[in-house]
Specification:
Strand order of the largest sheet: 1-3-2-4-5-6
Order of helices and strands: EEHEHEHEHEHHHHHHHHHH
Low-confidence stretches: 1-6, 323-330
Largest sheet: 6 strands, mixed
CATH topology of the largest domain: Hypothetical protein af1432
CATH class of the largest domain: Mainly Alpha
Helix content: 40-55%
CATH superfamily of the largest domain: Hypothetical protein af1432
Strand content: 5-15%
Radius of gyration: 26 Å
Number of helices: 14
Number of domains: 2
Distance between the termini: 53 Å
Shape: elongated
Structural class: alpha/beta
Length: about 325
């Protein structure tokens, strides 16, 4: 393996032909790209463990691991699935192109490679990777902000991670589609991000809130929605963030929605949020045993607050599992 230094971005070139590697490396290097060259698919996979790759150019027919195989592996891993992959091939048959598409390839180049086409494809895909990186950075900032809010209160330590875990388990029990499961996992982390706008003397108050304080606290769902709304990737999270404090009888907030007008995903997060609150130490009481927590939730279902079917489903999910009681750190 060897590298050619540059600044425009890092391109991995994998080809078992030294002549082809040299040609592609020269084309890219002279236009400002840093190039990592490897001779087969196994070396290509190893390179991703040590190099910040922006785009991969993979020859289809290589020893040890073909370009198809490397592409499938990259697209199956969370760390590399968003890196653009271009398959470089001399095969023009339709079934080969279909195999590449099924492997997850983002684009194709046909041998002999034309310089203009190579540079145009690489420039476009590197730009796309930059946008993706910026999006991931924005999501990471929001998640970090959410965790910093959680960290202010020792009684909520681990709350976000537990809600993400419980929400996914309940959603899978209900057979919800994968995009909603992903949204619930993310919402478990950032659902209370709007509390960044709530003063600490209200947020951390050990006793009951006054009416004015409660009104301030209730604004956190609207603020949270507004914070997350610029990210298109968070679009499905917005109804969860805004509506996870509604009640089935219309007495919740912020919009006093009722019954099925409350989005199902919001009701899912709401259910696990209530469960976690009851089974976690609070300043005014110790964590409740699981059975007692569900008894309280069922009583509140009869009052018209929560979705009884979801409470039953969560109880079924947790049945037979060893559920650790969340304790605050002294």
């Amino acid at each position: 393996m060897y590298e050619c230094e540059s600044l425009q971005g890092t391109v991995l070139v994998a080809d078992d032909s030294e002549d082809n590697r040299e040609l592609l490396c020269h084309m890219l290097r002279t236009h400002g790209y840093r190039v990592v060259c490897v001779a087969d698919g196994s070396e290509a996979l190893a390179a991703f463990e040590h190099e910040p790759i922006d785009i991969a150019l993979l020859d289809v027919m290589m020893p040890r691991q073909t370009g198809f195989s490397v592409c499938r592996i990259l697209k199956s891993q969370a760390e590399t699935r968003l890196i653009p992959v271009v398959l470089v091939t001399g095969m023009a048959r339709t079934e080969n192109r279909l195999q590449g598409i099924e492997s997850g390839a983002d684009d194709f180049l046909h041998k002999p490679v034309r310089k203009e086409e190579l540079l145009a494809r690489v420039k476009s895909l590197v730009r796309l990777k930059r946008y993706t990186d910026e999006l991931e950075s924005a999501e990471m900032v929001l998640c970090t902000l959410a965790r910093s809010i959680e960290a202010k209160d020792p009684y909520t330590e681990g709350h976000c991670d537990r809600l993400a875990k419980y929400s996914v388990a309940l959603a899978e029990q209900l057979g919800l589609p994968q995009d909603q499961i992903v949204a619930l996992r993310r919402a478990g982390i950032v659902h209370d991000i709007g509390k960044v706008a709530v003063p600490e003397h209200i947020l951390l108050k050990p006793g009951p809130l006054t009416e004015d304080e409660r009104r301030v606290m209730e604004t956190h769902v609207v603020v949270g929605e507004r914070i997350c709304s610029p990210l298109k990737s968070f679009r499905q999270l917005l109804p969860i963030i805004r509506h996870h404090h509604e009640r089935m009888n219309g007495t919740g907030y912020p919009d006093r929605l009722s019954n099925n007008s409350i989005p199902l995903t919001a009701r899912v997060l709401q259910t696990v949020d209530i469960y976690d609150a009851l089974t976690t130490d609070r300043p005014y009481r110790k964590a409740l045993p699981v059975g007692e927590a569900f008894a309280i939730m069922q009583e509140e279902v009869r009052r018209g607050w929560w979705d009884g079917a979801l409470v039953d489903a969560l109880q079924e999910v947790l049945k037979g599992q060893e559920v650790p009681v969340a304790r605050a750190i002294a």
